[in-house]
Design goal:
Elements lengths: L18 E7 L2 E2 L3 E3 L11 H5 L2 E3 L2 E5 L5 E4 L1 H14 L7 H14 L12 E10 L12 E10 L10 E5 L17 H16 L4 E5 L7 E4 L2 E7 L2 E5 L8 H12 L3 E5 L11 E6 L3 E10 L4 E4 L8 H14 L10 E4 L1
Parallel strand pairs: 9-10, 9-16, 13-14
Antiparallel strand pairs: 1-2, 1-3, 1-8, 4-7, 5-6, 5-7, 6-18, 7-8, 10-11, 11-12, 12-13, 12-15, 15-16, 16-17
The structure holds pyridoxal-5'-phosphate.
The site of pyridoxal-5'-phosphate (PLP) has 13 residues, from strand 12 and helix 5.
Length: 339
């Protein structure tokens, strides 16, 4: 067994043994290849470098209580990458190639899957980039799909700790008919300034509003927004947010727990009426939100008592993690068990 301080690993890059690559050339995908190099060699005029033709995914594999390794909802990530590829005019990775590549990347780096009980997991990063040389603005004719994995520690090292958010009044992440609903690097480039400004002021993340009216909540940096109000789980409906698979899963769990789920435009004005607020995504599952500051009005919206996460967010978080680590019944059939 590999000796790593699993419980204290950051959410960062750790070199593993192998990665997987598959090239699209002459209108078709080639064989799945494995490599032990951390580097790729591409043409300097590759469309991904100049015109942002790229999309990625983020998912995790977990070593379960029973010793089995599970990948969480891979098909959802495959479908989302398909949608992102179509969104920025790239070749679509067939679902069989996606699955075979992630399974291979996980299996070949089996010694990096953290032990059960450490709270750590193996992060899987599928990446699709335009490699064809382009100077004129036009989709590439060649693509590279690759998958690397890296072990990541538990997001909350001192327990399930609430964070604060800063409403981004001077920045937008994505336009209503733009690429906000695709998982493409350009959205991240567009969100960096707001994110760094929020970090510099001590916030975990920027909270983006709809770009048209600055009236509705979009999402919290690289995570979706949700709120709990009484027996309701409320999450924004917007054409410029990336549909989080964690959010989708939490909605199913909330319904299963007897809650009502509302997917609708959520106004900034409503923030005062919520009992709990959280940001959700693969990295943390849920980041409970303690407070949100609005620099326009100077108003602070507060949620947690004694710096603690709310009871509903805590319950949702535990149930989802329990399913991922095989401690709870996978009643939704979300796990792919690696044989
Ligand atoms: C990846 C991502 C999320 C979270 O999605 P999950 O599938 O839950 O990991 C949320 N917002 C943005 C902008 C993202 O890129």
């Amino acid at each position: 067994m590999l000796e790593l301080d699993w419980s204290h690993l950051p959410f960062g890059y750790v070199k593993t043994d192998y990665n997987v690559r598959c090239y699209y050339r002459n209108g078709k995908w080639g064989e799945i290849e494995t490599s032990s190099s951390e580097f790729i060699s591409i043409h300097m005029a590759a469309s991904s470098l100049h015109y942002g033709q790229e999309a990625f995914e983020g998912m995790k594999a977990f070593r379960g209580k029973d010793g089995k390794n599970r990948i969480f909802r891979w098909e959802e990530n495959a479908m989302r990458m398909e949608s992102s590829a179509n969104g920025v005019m790239m070749a679509v990775v067939p679902r069989e190639i996606f699955l075979e590549s992630i399974v291979k990347a996980v299996k070949m780096n089996e010694r990096f899957i953290p032990p059960f009980g450490t709270g750590a997991s193996l992060y899987i990063r599928p990446l699709l980039i335009g490699t064809g040389a382009r100077v004129g603005v036009k989709p590439a004719d060649e693509y590279l799909f690759m998958v690397f994995v890296t072990p990541v520690g538990p997001y909350f090292k001192e327990g399930f700790k609430p964070v604060s958010l800063l409403i981004a009044r001077d920045h937008d992440r994505a336009a209503p008919k733009g690429t906000g609903r695709f998982k493409v690097g350009g959205n991240y480039a567009a969100s960096l300034a707001a994110g760094e400004e929020a970090h510099a002021k001590g916030y975990a993340s920027a909270l983006f509003l709809d770009a048209r009216e600055k009236k509705y909540i979009d999402e919290a940096g690289p995570a979706n927004f949700f709120a709990i109000k009484g027996n309701k789980y409320i999450t924004p409906k917007s054409e410029s947010i990336l549909a989080s698979i964690t959010n989708k899963s939490l909605m199913d769990i909330a319904k299963d727990m007897g809650m009502e789920v509302e997917v609708r435009p959520v106004e900034v004005n409503e923030l005062d009426s919520f009992d709990e607020v959280g940001a959700c995504g693969t990295a943390a599952v849920i980041s409970p939100v303690c407070k949100i500051d609005d620099p326009l009005t100077g108003h602070t919206y507060s949620y947690c008592k004694d710096g603690q996460a709310g009871p509903v967010s805590t319950k949702l978080y535990k149930r989802l993690q329990g399913i991922q680590y095989g401690e709870e019944d996978d009643v939704f059939n979300w796990n792919y068990i690696i044989e």
